[in-house]
Amino acid sequence: MLNASIQISIVVPIYNVEEYLKRCIESIIEQTYKNLEIILVDDGSTDCCPEICDYYSKVDNRIQVIHKKNGGLVSARKAGTAVAKGDYILNVDGDDWIEKDRVEVLVVEGIKSAKSDMIYLSGYKKDYRNGSICIESDIPIKTFYEDEIRKQIFPLLMDVNEGFHTRVKSILVAWAVRRELLQEKQILVDDRISMGEDIICIWFCLLSARSVTFVKQDGYHYVQRSSSLSHTAAISLGDDYSRMKIWYQQLKEYLEMYNDSKEINQIFIYTTIWSIMLANYELLLKKHPQYLYPFTKVKKGHKIVVYGAGRIGQSLLQYLLRTKDNEVTLWVDQNEKESTLLGYKVSSIEDIIKVNYDYIVIAVMDAYLIRGIKQYLITKGIPEQKIAIMDVSVMSEEAIPNEIKNDRV
């Protein structure tokens, strides 16, 4: 029988996810590793989540419920983390769920092997309505100590040679953190931040951690839904950069106090630009009117095909249709979707030969995906010189908009 001497506290922030919450809670209750403290944080839900939480607290005595006024994801996580008593804290979002052996693998292969301050659970699954996709990373399965954390782990958070590519995710649900360390750092994160809050917390912890262990465990199911907290935050930030400014300034000031590495600072700059593109891409586009940032060879007046139906592709398309700086002749994606935006419908790549264009702009974030898309387009007969990809040379501190970089909150 498994020796369950280590207690794991699982914090579940919850807000209006009644459709998903029962599956989430039951997936935690049914873990093969039983020494759990389950903390359900109802962040002022207006649906049936409060009643669901209270019901399960009567079913399983390992569950405690916190009902609080709505304050956002950071506030909810702080509330749960503050009362945790386990040896390590693991986060699970209220609309997601985990497979039965997730905690057992964490304890047996992660914690007991080295008793590290932080354990990274590599891999996860994205659940869509019609299926699931496993997202894996090619990372070393080992324990890192002291200087190895800064020199070897931080470059995995954002590859500054390739462009935007994250082999290790700065998302709390992928990490288990020693309770005292997470309690010390989570409380520092500004409650007003609604996107990138995990990045701040994970970076704070990594800069103080003495050891970090990587384990392969892809049993986290990240449910994709348009009304999720991250999706809502990204949309709302389109007209309000103040929270992005708070995020930038808090992380920058912390790095200035606790880190003097030029390499980590460059990773921070890349991460900032990546975060701005996700939260408020227009700030970068407006700052660089001489070209279509960060596609330096695309100038005003060029006819373009926008490749990418994700968040960046949609943001770019909206901006171009409003400003008319460039004529959009087509919007395409390799995985053709039933998606329409301002009268434009996603078309197939085969439709490219039907239109005139100067460049195909690959509006996709991940550098590895961009490389594959570029090669795919070339096999389809697209001339390489007509394919525009992100130029890493313009991903510098100077590229960060003054509204975020200079003003103080």
In short:
By secondary structure, the protein is of the alpha/beta class. The protein has helices spanning 18-29, 49-59, 73-83, 102-114, 147-157, 179-186, 197-208, 229-236, 242-258, 262-287, 311-323, 367-379, 402-405; strands spanning 8-14, 36-43, 63-68, 88-91, 97-98, 118-122, 124-128, 131-135, 143-145, 175-178, 211-216, 220-223, 303-307, 327-332, 340-341, 344-345, 359-362, 387-388.
Describe this protein's structure:
This protein has 409 residues and is of the alpha/beta class. It has 2 domains: 8-239, Spore Coat Polysaccharide Biosynthesis Protein SpsA, Chain A, CATH 3.90.550.10; 303-390, NAD(P)-binding Rossmann-like Domain (Rossmann fold). It is 39% helix and 20% strand. It has 13 helices and 18 strands. The protein has helices spanning 18-29, 49-59, 73-83, 102-114, 147-157, 179-186, 197-208, 229-236, 242-258, 262-287, 311-323, 367-379, 402-405, and strands at 8-14, 36-43, 63-68, 88-91, 97-98, 118-122, 124-128, 131-135, 143-145, 175-178, 211-216, 220-223, 303-307, 327-332, 340-341, 344-345, 359-362, 387-388. Helix 6 packs across helix 7 and helix 9 (242-258) runs antiparallel to helix 10 (262-287).
